[in-house]
Design brief:
alpha/beta, six-stranded mixed beta sheet, two-stranded antiparallel ribbon, 16 helices, 12 strands, flat
Length: 465
């Protein structure tokens, strides 16, 4: 089984990383003092530099280990692993510099920069090709991790779906033990092979790498007994909850004097510092954007005034943070209508109410620019879920699960749903899925990414009419 080879693989991996650290170290020395003639070596001899390796090599490998570079990576993306390499090298480089300072050791700063860059490059290239090689083996049926699933549920089906969709992970499911489903019942390529009472017998007869417990939520009273049986046999055990439709992917867990408390919804923007950072970026960003777009906004305002009767700016009541209503501003893109005749619905293709200039500014999202004023007022953010009218909020909160979660943060001019194409007359469910993902995974970098995507693909809205 794969677990028998993991220890040897990790040892080989550590040796390989040690070789790369050494190679990077000597390459950096040669680049700095020999090949590029960037600086005369003088007292910086290869012998004097080599003595630092007594400290550098074990420090790097220790930090690599504690950073999780040798942990199993099945099911993890390449970006995640490359980030670990970068993070480990940042910490290792900082530790190296601190040691140099503490022991007053003289070393070239140019050498340090080249060593750092070379080591990161070699490690990333090596891990990329190693990953591709392992994925190739797994697709061929080698280097597999053998799994038994306990409990037939929605979680079991979701787990099987992901395993079958990703053969490069190298998981092989031998079957499912369940008390309610008949032996022989199949879900895709996986069959029910026995009952949960037979778990101990299966563990004695077979050498599984992993047991995945996927009990239906109404069977959780069996969990303690099943976990005890798995731990008695020494097999690695995973628990995949059947309430993933309730609890987010990365729940926030508090330690209440040894009692784990799961917060149902993780909202990073409930943190005061995060809110302050986002609000600062909103104010600065909106102010700069108003200056940059002042001339185009004046031109659009003039065209609206010359081509149709009515005000330049149109305001509409929307629902924002904490379910509070506010007036959202837009450039008017439709003919002025009497309140009694106004159609309380989204615009549709070839909508007769949209003006000539209105079609253009809606398609290019220029009509949204006055919302920069909403951002300065604090009603909105540059990035966040799009706000909706009260009438539709009342409708959707009854129809769409988790719809009201979007009101835990300020609504935005643009958002994760919008840059993924869910604007205008598109799926509300998909839009909410993206909004919830944004709310649970907010970072300043995520906001910057969304703004970047908005600039390059978010302004042209194919679903705007």
């Amino acid at each position: 089984m794969i677990k028998d080879n993991q220890k040897a693989f990790n040892q080989l991996h550590i040796v390989t990383d040690g070789v790369f650290v050494l190679a990077s170290y000597y390459l950096a020395y040669m680049l700095r003092f020999a090949w590029l003639n960037m600086e005369k070596a003088g007292d910086y001899t290869i012998e004097s530099y080599s003595r630092f390796l007594i400290v550098v090599l074990p420090v790097y490998l220790l930090i690599y280990w504690t950073s999780g570079l040798y942990a199993p990576k099945r099911g993890r993306g390449m970006q995640w692993e490359l980030w670990l390499v970068l993070k480990a090298n940042i910490i290792s480089g900082a530790a190296f510099i601190v040691l140099l300072f503490l022991f007053k050791m003289d070393i070239s700063r140019g050498f340090l920069a080249i060593f750092y860059g070379t080591n990161v490059l070699l490690e990333c290239v090596f891990r990329f090709f190693l990953r591709k090689f392992l994925e190739h083996l797994r697709r061929k049926g080698k280097n597999l991790k053998h799994i038994l699933i306990v409990g037939y549920s929605r979680a079991a089906e979701a787990y099987v779906d992901r395993i079958l969709a990703n053969p490069q992970w190298g998981y092989f499911v031998h079957g499912i033990l369940d008390d309610k489903m008949a032996v022989g019942t199949r879900y895709k390529k996986v069959s029910v092979v026995g009952t949960m009472e037979e778990l101990s017998d299966y563990l004695q007869k077979h050498d599984y790498d992993e047991i995945a417990i996927t009990l239906a939520i109404e069977e959780y009273e069996k969990l303690e007994r099943l976990v005890a049986a798995c731990e008695y046999s020494g097999v690695h055990t995973k628990f995949i909850p059947d309430y993933n439709h309730i609890v987010p992917t990365v729940p926030y867990i508090e330690d209440l004097e040894g009692l784990p408390v799961i917060n149902i919804r993780k909202v990073p923007l409930s943190n005061l510092v995060n809110r302050a950072v986002k609000r600062t970026v909103d104010i600065v960003g909106a102010a700069v954007a108003l200056v940059l777009f002042s001339v185009p906004m004046l031109v659009v305002a003039l065209l609206i005034k010359l081509t149709s009767k009515g005000p330049v700016i149109f305001s509409q009541v929307r629902v924002g943070l904490h379910n509070k209503e506010f007036k959202m501003y837009k450039f008017r893109s439709m003919v002025v209508q009497e309140a009694a005749k106004e159609v309380n619905a989204w615009t549709t293709k070839n909508d007769s109410r949209v003006t000539g200039i209105g079609k253009f500014i809606r398609k290019t999202s220029i009509d949204e620019l006055p919302q920069l004023i909403n951002v300065l007022k604090g009603d909105m953010s540059l990035v966040g879920p799009r706000p909706e009218r009260p009438k539709f909020v009342e409708k959707f909160k009854e129809e769409i699960p988790r719809y009201m979660i979007k009101h835990q943060v300020r609504p935005g001019i643009t958002g994760w749903a919008q840059v993924n194409g869910y604007r205008g007359d598109t799926s509300i469910r998909k839009r909410i899925e993206h909004d919830v993902h944004y709310i649970e995974n907010w970072t300043l970098g995520f906001d910057i990414k969304i703004l970047f995507l908005t600039v390059f693909k978010g302004f042209i809205n194919k679903n705007a009419y």
